[in-house]
Amino acid sequence: MKEIYEMLKILIFVYFVLFGSSVFAKEIPVIVISAGKNPQSYSSVGSQVAIIDSDKISQSSGSTLIDVLDNEVQGLNIFRLGGKGTNTGIQMRGLPKRYSTVYIDGVKMYDPSASDNSFYSEGIFKDSIDRIEILKGSQSSLYGNSAVGGTINIFTKKGKLGKHQNAIVRASQNNTKDIFYSFDGADEKHNYYVGLNYYATDGISAMNNDNENDPYENNSLTVNYGYKISENNIIENSLKFKDSYLKYDEPTDGRDDTKNSSDNIEANYSLKFINTNDKFKNTFGYSKAASSRMVTDWEGRENTYEGFKNMLTYLGEYNFNLDNKIIYGADLEFFKAKYPTDPGANKTTDEEIHSQYIDYQFRPFENIYATIGGRNDKHTTAGDEQSYRFTGAYDLGGNSKIRSSYGTGFLFPALYESGEYGWTNQDGDKINAEKTTSFDIGYETYFENLDIEFNITYFDIVVEDPIMGSNITDFQDNVIGVENKSRGIELATKWTNKNKLNIGFNYTFTDSYSGMDCDKPEKDKWGHTSCRDSNNDGIGNVDNAMVRVPVHAISSKINYQINQDLNSTLLLTYRGQTRDYGGSDVSFIDQLIDEYFLADLTSSYKINESYKLDFSIKNVFDKFYENAFLYSGTPRTISIGLNKKF
């Protein structure tokens, strides 16, 4: 393993030396928003950004955000605890999902009543999404709490000039029905968009120890409305609503699964006032969110978990000139959790976070773009945390650049982690935030004579004093002196042959290390807990890796445009061996999950300007696999869909 790691480092160096000063294709003016919370040229961004536009979203197989991310983005590890609607994790840079944030239309999404404060992304459907930007690496100086592995920014659709309607009907095995309808429009003053989703399936068995299917139903609504008050003043409104129901399997073998269910309601509303005045741009925002989960366990007991969030935000921008600007802002975040039926938790818990940040984006030299930023977050119980970041991009000409970023971050304890001790550990001390440092360096280019895009990144992240969660012990505490680590290499290439044949190849090597819950703890001379490295090479030890993170992950997407109306795609995916927690049936001993290889085939046929037919086969060879211990992977599934535009 050590030799592989050294070889990959040499590969990065070779590409820098051989191709760093070559002449490449003319620059394509790509604009990104998430990297600096303002529109900027992709060539000036020092962080790694992946962009999924509306065309890729509509062409992607599947119905959900997770399907799109799994097919289109390198370096994301996605696991699902069973079929559609079950708990899904998006892991970035080899870290658990709670170390990444999700924003929809600029509003942070999470459930304060969840055990780790993370966001349940499995219920977001793709058809109302216009664009996705995935920003990797530590972004806490801009995005605050938990933006350590990265940030996923989702932009939903807005009304376009005129009036439009769109309808999609998809059907697949297990009595799966997916129906979508939207209408939108715009004129000089107004724009509006309304999208409705209905999804229902008999599902599959989440666990491998029974054959009982787990049905799932989801009703979703997305509404956007904008009004142009004047040339310099705009109001934007956004509403998201979701009502879902899931029958799920009991993870302990031998228990009755017929009563297990989760009935969920989520609602999010946001209001923005945007003022532009010469070199200034000011955005004032208010958002409100509420969620309720009624969970019925295997004995028929019902527990309700409720989360509430209110945010006041201000984002300012001042442009000194085309190459120098300053971004600044403040957030007031109020969040509350209620556990009215849980006898082991406080009935109501609430906290606040007060934040201020500043980010300076400048161009010190002709071909160099840089940012420097800092942030202060005050948690009303866990205390103050400061974070900062530096980024740089060296434009080599054309579509080629070297980029790098370094930043610090943090993760405050979740409300549910207070438990019966009320924000203290078993000794009565305050639980502090986890602290992180992150570094990455990357190179990307386009070889015009070969029609090849190339992108390679090295990353290194350290998490200090992680919080040991309730899934391990009956209390919460910082594990002082312990470090969780993740480092690795992400490589992506794409070859295009006259826009008819595209062959993409992605490889991610992740050397992650969990010092928090490793199998063989010991103490060093300072009394700090660590893990023995059984391979004695400091790298690639699956036994001590972060949970459900493969050391090796490979994917290849082959797309062929047969003619102007018929398009087909073959997606090949390999996931290496991973570690996972074991439950009570195996005496809580960690388990190793086998590697697997999958093939998916999709095709779309444009019947005419109004109708398009989609067809897909997931898991063509019907391979059995797990990406979480004892939880079923998706079997072979055939789907067909019809898209009608009015």
Give me the secondary-structure topology.
Layout: H1 2-19, E1 31-32, E2 40-41, E3 49-52, H2 54-59, H3 65-72, E4 76-80, E5 88-92, E6 100-104, E7 107-109, E8 129-136, H4 140-143, E9 150-156, E10 162-172, E11 176-186, E12 190-201, E13 216-230, E14 233-247, E15 261-277, E16 280-296, E17 302-321, E18 324-338, E19 348-365, E20 368-379, E21 383-397, E22 400-411, E23 434-447, E24 452-464, E25 467-468, E26 477-478, E27 483-497, E28 501-514, E29 521-523, E30 529-531, E31 552-561, E32 566-575, E33 578-580, E34 591-593, E35 596-606, E36 611-618, E37 637-645
Parallel strand pairs: 6-9
Antiparallel strand pairs: 1-2, 3-8, 4-5, 6-7, 8-9, 10-11, 10-37, 11-12, 12-13, 13-14, 14-15, 15-16, 16-17, 17-18, 18-19, 19-20, 20-21, 21-22, 22-23, 23-24, 24-27, 25-26, 27-28, 28-31, 29-30, 31-32, 32-35, 33-34, 35-36, 36-37
